[in-house]
Design goal:
- Helices cover 45% and strands 14% of the residues.
- The longest helix is centred in the C-terminal third of the chain and has 40 residues.
- The protein has a 6-stranded mixed beta sheet, with helices on both faces. The chain has a two-stranded antiparallel sheet with strand order 2-3.
- The chain has 2 domains: 203 residues, no CATH class; 102 residues, no CATH class.
- By secondary structure, it is an alpha/beta fold.
- The protein is globular, with a radius of gyration of 22 Å.
- The chain is built from 9 helices and 8 strands.
Length: 321
């Protein structure tokens, strides 16, 4: 049995769904979503109804999707909530693909007039998106806009990303309720008590639900297994980046012999960073596919279906079994 802190890690699949995926009590999820949707005006989500997270295409041969959470509010607005642990090369494209399912599902056969309810993809990210690296903002909300006037042309499709690692504040420096949520995501598994600043806030309920010792034994065992998967994923990602940087440094120094040792070292470091990030992304993407495949195997899904859903080879899936 591996060492476990007092509170579970919210970046694990188990921890995330334990806190925010409780269909009998959606207060914490509503709080988080309302903080993220603060720029949508004064409207607040009053009720949340969970929907099946397995999104099926119209044609059996087309690719389906399995998402962390899909829910709907009292006005019929659709929410896809995804926890993304490591960077992926085509993450934003995958997010857009996911939103196509709830859009299609709103189609009613017969006299439907194509009026759509808003769809929100909300990505809770444990990494920074490359295109926003130089931006200080950690919350991004995209709609379809006119490239000339920058005015919103269509507001029913919403792509929202929260870059949690961009928050680099102590708890004394936090200035908003959303920043408190981000701080909890980052630090809950290292904390030993509820901060005095939120002892009268709804966020305090997170601590009770996340206390490892109070969970049934079956849940504790499930969390341990999930925590190991998370740690393996992060270790693989970090190792791939380090390995890529070392390879790039070696190549740069070798090339630098023709240009001067110091110049070569500078080239090596730069090349190493580029290769490390790219190799890390590839490794992270592959590890996530394997993680999804393992989950589908446990659910009894057939090998060919898993191969279609993840892109993994049949032999590799059989090996995971």
């Amino acid at each position: 049995m591996c060492y476990t802190s007092k509170y579970i890690n919210l970046f694990t699949d188990f921890g995330f769904k334990k806190i925010f995926g409780d269909e009998t009590n959606t207060d914490l999820l509503k709080s988080l979503l309302n903080d993220i949707l603060q720029f949508e005006g004064e409207r607040k989500i009053q009720t949340i109804i969970f929907k099946n997270g397995e999104l099926l295409p119209d044609a059996p041969e087309d690719r389906k999707a399995i998402i962390d959470m899909m829910c709907e509010d009292e006005k019929g607005n659709q929410f896809i909530v995804e926890l993304q642990k490591v960077s992926q090369e085509h993450f934003q494209s995958r997010a857009l693909y996911y939103t196509s399912f709830p859009i299609q599902q709103q189609g009613i056969k017969g006299g439907w007039n194509f009026e759509l309810k808003p769809v929100y993809f909300i990505g809770l990210l444990n990494f920074e998106i490359d295109r926003f690296k130089d931006k200080k903002e950690y919350l991004h909300h995209g709609k379809i806009t006119d490239i000339y006037t920058q005015e919103v042309m269509y507001d029913k499709l919403n792509m929202i990303y929260l870059e949690i690692p961009k928050l680099k504040k102590t708890k004394e420096e936090l200035t908003s309720h959303l920043e408190w949520w981000m701080y909890i995501f980052q630090n809950l598994h290292t904390m030993t008590d509820i901060p005095s600043e939120i002892k009268n806030d709804i966020i305090k309920n997170t601590f009770k639900k996340a206390e490892f010792a109070s969970m049934p034994k079956g849940e504790q065992e499930k969390y341990h297994k999930n925590l190991k998967v998370y740690r393996d994923l992060m270790n693989s990602f970090d190792f791939a980046i380090k390995e890529g940087m070392e390879m790039g440094l070696e190549m740069g120094i070798k090339k630098g012999k023709e240009m001067g040792i110091e110049k070569g070292r500078e080239m090596g470091i730069k090349k190493g960073e580029e290769m490390g990030i790219e190799k890390g992304r590839e490794e992270g993407k592959r590890e996530e596919k394997r993680e999804i495949a393992k989950a589908l195997i446990i659910q009894g899904v057939e090998t060919q279906t898993i191969a279609s859903a993840t892109g993994l080879e049949v032999d590799e899936i059989d090996g995971l079994r």
